[in-house]
């Protein structure tokens, strides 16, 4: 089976027209059949915005966005991360529907699920983000080996790898080893790409898309694995007496309009809150929700009458135990799941900085600590 890759640095071999927000030359080094079906395999890239793989796949006649509920991948998540992932999957499905598509969810090992789906929809291409983590690389290698045994008229299905490089560069081997020397190069940043749009054939309506599981359903599913005892012990080890007490207070106050927060005080629920998980300590939701929270975070120095932004500002103050720590605390988990891309965060932060400074960015540093925190984190 051939393993194909999108060019490592998009601006040179896969050129995007940022002014028109569309791809001018897609997959120049890869021969694709646009009349065929493509599968886009989501892992920790749960977004439609700034998704080069999804944008490239949209050139095909039919596209099947897929998320595999693979225990080997999910077992690496904490319960809190699983909760975030479920919320993100719900929002991703809604975003894809707005773009003319849908999200398919299937349970099992990724290699078996993808092999079955590729045969079912006759898809000669599988788009997936390139991996660097060892365990995820093993899963990806397993998918490659499985697809090698699938027989199609034009050959076995091909895996197309995509990336979101942060800087524009011709060759990684030409980069200096020192960070200080690297900064002196002043390489231009690659910009985020727009969301893809789809025109779904009527035949897609007959496919089984699956439903997004609840946290309880997913927890039961995970307990069926061989790691049940280990995961149970890990959960017990991370549960503090304070958390148990807070949860019990929450159960006693079910139906009330107030709820406990980290400092033990009671507070009314905020309309359109971006803190919707049980612990309510990190931003959660889809890309639009997260970008709204980011806009509020960046504008901390400005006064606002919006309840949702005021809540973000309050959480920021609680989490800022050292300069920049609040960004990791509030946005780290959603960045890890790829609900927003690092390029998008940097772009939004620098655009706000320009807005504050008549279109310019000072060479002496950012004018707002929140802008510095966001850009430093994603760089």
Automatic annotation (TrEMBL):
Top-level taxon in the UniProt lineage: Eukaryota
Domain Photolyase/cryptochrome alpha/beta: 36-160
InterPro entries reported in the protein's UniProt record: Crypto/Photolyase_N_sf, DNA_photolyase_N, Rossmann-like_a/b/a_fold
Pfam families on file: DNA_photolyase
Stated name of the protein: Cryptochrome DASH, chloroplastic/mitochondrial-like
Organism for this UniProt entry: Camelina sativa
């Amino acid at each position: 089976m051939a393993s194909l890759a999108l060019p490592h640095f998009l601006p040179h071999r896969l050129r995007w027209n940022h002014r028109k927000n569309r791809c001018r030359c897609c997959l120049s080094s890869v021969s694709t059949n646009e009349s065929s079906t493509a599968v886009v395999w989501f892992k920790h890239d749960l977004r439609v915005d700034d998704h080069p793989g999804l944008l490239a796949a949209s050139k095909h006649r039919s596209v099947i966005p897929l998320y595999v509920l693979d225990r080997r991948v999910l077992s690496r998540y904490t319960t809190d991360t699983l909760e975030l992932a479920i919320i993100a999957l719900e929002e991703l499905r809604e975003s894809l529907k707005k773009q003319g598509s849908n999200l398919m969810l299937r349970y099992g090992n990724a290699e078996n699920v993808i092999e079955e789906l590729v045969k079912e929809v006759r898809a000669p291409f599988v788009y997936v983000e390139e991996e660097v983590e060892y365990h995820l690389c093993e899963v990806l290698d397993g998918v490659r080996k499985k697809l090698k045994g699938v027989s199609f008229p034009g050959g076995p299905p091909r895996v197309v790898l995509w990336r979101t490089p942060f800087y524009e560069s011709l060759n990684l081997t030409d980069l200096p080893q020192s960070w200080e020397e690297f900064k002196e190069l002043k390489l231009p940043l690659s910009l985020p790409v727009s969301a893809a749009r789809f025109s779904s054939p009527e035949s897609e309506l007959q496919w089984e898309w699956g439903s997004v599981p609840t946290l309880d359903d997913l927890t039961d599913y995970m307990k069926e694995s061989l790691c049940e005892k280990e995961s149970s012990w890990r959960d017990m080890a991370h549960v503090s007496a304070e958390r148990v007490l807070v949860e019990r207070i929450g159960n006693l106050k079910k139906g009330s309009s107030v709820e406990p927060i980290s400092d033990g005080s009671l507070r009314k629920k905020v309309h359109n809150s971006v803190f919707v998980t049980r612990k309510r300590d990190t931003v959660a939701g889809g890309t639009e929700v997260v970008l709204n929270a980011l806009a509020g975070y960046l504008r901390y120095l400005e006064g606002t009458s919006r309840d949702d932004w005021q809540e973000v500002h309050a959480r920021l103050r609680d989490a800022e135990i050292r300069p920049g720590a609040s960004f990791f605390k509030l946005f780290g988990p959603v960045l890890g799941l790829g609900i927003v891309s690092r390029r998008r965060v940097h772009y939004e932060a620098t655009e706000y900085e320009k807005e504050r400074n008549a279109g310019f960015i000072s060479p002496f540093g950012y004018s707002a600590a929140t802008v510095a925190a966001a850009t430093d984190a994603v760089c």
